[in-house]
Amino acid sequence: MSRLRRFFRTPEAIAGSLILALLVAMALAAPLLFPGDPQAIAGPALLPPFQNWALPLGTDRLGRDVLAELFHGARTSLAVGLAAATAALLIGAVVGTLAGFAGGPIDEVLMRITDAFQTVPSFLLALAFVSIVGPSLGVVVAAIALGAWTGPARVARAEVLSIRERDYVAGARVIGMHPLEIAFREVLPNALPPVLALSSVIVAAAILTEAALSFLGLGDPNRVTWGGMIAEGRTVLRTAPFLSIVPGVALVLTVLGVYLAGEGVVESTAMRRSLS
Amino acid sequence: MTALLSIRDLAVRYRRDGVEVTALKGVSLDVEGSERLAIIGESGSGKSTLALAVAGLLPGSAGIDGRIEWFLPADAGAKAPHLGRDIGFVFQDPSSSLDPIMPVGKQIAEVVRTHLGLGWRDAYARAKTLLKRVHLPNPDAILHAYPHQLSGGQKQRVAIAAAIVAGPRLLIADEATSALDTIVQAEIVTLIRQLVAEDGMTLLFISHDIALAATLADRIAVLRHGELVEFGETRQVIEAPRHAYTRALLDAYLGLDAQPLLDRQGTRV
Amino acid sequence: MSVLTVSNLTKHYRRGGERFAAVDDVSFEIAPAETLALAGPSGSGKSTIARLVLRLIEPDTGRIEFEGEDFLALSGATLRARRAKLQMVFQDPLAAFNPRATVARVLDDPLRIHDIASRAERPSRIASLLERVGLHAALAMRAIHEISGGQRQRVAIARAIATRPSLIVLDEAVSALDVSVRGQILDLLLDLQRQERISYLFISHDLGVIRAIAHRVAILDAGRIVESGDARAVIADPQSAIGKALVAAMPKLNRETTL
User: How far, in Å, CA of B174 to CA of B161, rounded?
Assistant: First the structure.
């Protein structure tokens, strides 16, 4: 309980949590407030915002409700961002733990693979992957995770290398614990905190990568995405700039919210350390 | 003898996870000039808190009652003593009290520059003299060595050199030998005894080991749960302890003349 | 017959490009229900020997025979199974346990791994182990970091005896404890030895403690055993230079007999 209280003591955490709460509320409320297909035509094309109160943010080139698209887009952004980051952290933690704990040739092989992934720009990797396999939500998640797991893997490995030498790991060996159980039950949970500290950066990057892929037309075509909305608006940027600005602002706020909340977590753990 | 400092009704409280912990309760004692005073206690007795309080090193969040009065000679100028210049402090773990990325000679020279206002050249000369005084072999080489190149005992000698280089009146050694093996511990105790005698320093020797303290101290103070339970001349405390706790500590000491537990177990029914 | 026979054990390390022997041709044996102490200054190789005997590290050369079996020939699942009989207690009981663990989990692990008790039986086994080392059974629910240092070391001993070992390596196991607690832990160790006939390899730099608890002592200097024999005889009249230095370094309490 006191951990939560410490978290909400930092202004970053309060601002970040407010933004994220708003975003989650939007995502959850989307099917209730806008039950129909957000991609259906709702009115005249290119209606500017604040003209018609049934369509407060106006309509796009095809006459679709921008507000409905924005709400449904929040669902995609959050889902892809969280799923990709979770996958990246999971893969990274497992690879890093195995490499650090096993050492020797296993470590060498795993870390050279990590190097290989790290030398290819992650956006290029995602782009190539989606182009080959074809755009769908699952593929986009996998494509983003593919480029994001190397950071967590390196951090996990470094942490595991130091934990491996502690007495309690020796103690676990002495009682005859299986090496895999030692790695994943004794070592990994204690190596996680610095890895999790990366999560806000990874979630934010994943949301941005998803938007970029959608912007290039490589997002799931059956879903509304903010990146797709920006791309749509680009063709009429001079006459109807709001079509790009609205989802763009949503994207910026989301990434900012994730960063701020992540900063709050780091601050609150630092506070705890300095207290003890 | 004249008192160097007088502690009156000292009480220290910490807050830990929202719970208030009393580390010291109403401790009063006088430290005489040029005496060797040992403060003995087990973990949680408040002995380290007392050392930190005397050195003015307690964290700002600690609640402090009572007072510590210093009787510094008039020429010292300031009323409150300066840590480093008037008080030398040696911690238990020299690895964490020395800067790992600075040559040890520079660390000592820096103390000289800060407190005695000498230039680098003179400060280094002083540092070298000190390394000789703490009996480190080849002081020229050690001057430029980093802490990780030294053994535990050598690091503690360096820490002692840094603590006394500015010529403090009071040397506080807080469990300064507990991380060392018996042989090195005995050497460090011998060194401290010699340095204190040569410079006429007052020594506050904080330890959990009453037998070790008895080999060094003129007087012994025993703390338990933050209270001063016994205070007297070393011989009196060892031979005729007034408090049952002091006697228990003495009985628990396993010296080379103690009856082995193996025998005790055998005779027990 | 001895529980443990170590012959010509050697382990080299590299320090600054130079090879040096941390353990140099060391041989000793321990009989059932016997305590052999390894004494020596820091860096003399005591802890390296402990880790070699437990196969936490591998020797360069030498032989370790445990309960009549070539211990160095074991590997994988066989080695893990045999570890039940050869246990260890560390110096710092806080560092020796996973910081997230509870007392119950720490004691549950050996019982589960070596299939000593079924899941349903384990809680009562844990309770009796805690009582065996003089702790209240209710302590099982507490986190390791919540209990005192002395209690933690008792839990470490409970964990070591959970698998009914024939030998426990005690690496400076009482050095970090308060003197009043230290006496109680030494009493507990002697009690367990008499009742369960456990042998101890007792590693310490403190000759006072060694004299109180060990039958025999081997004194180490720079990785070699320089003298060994009956603990009291060796300590009363050490022959080696390092033995003499260790004895001379012990503080002496010249107490009048007050009782």
Answer: 15
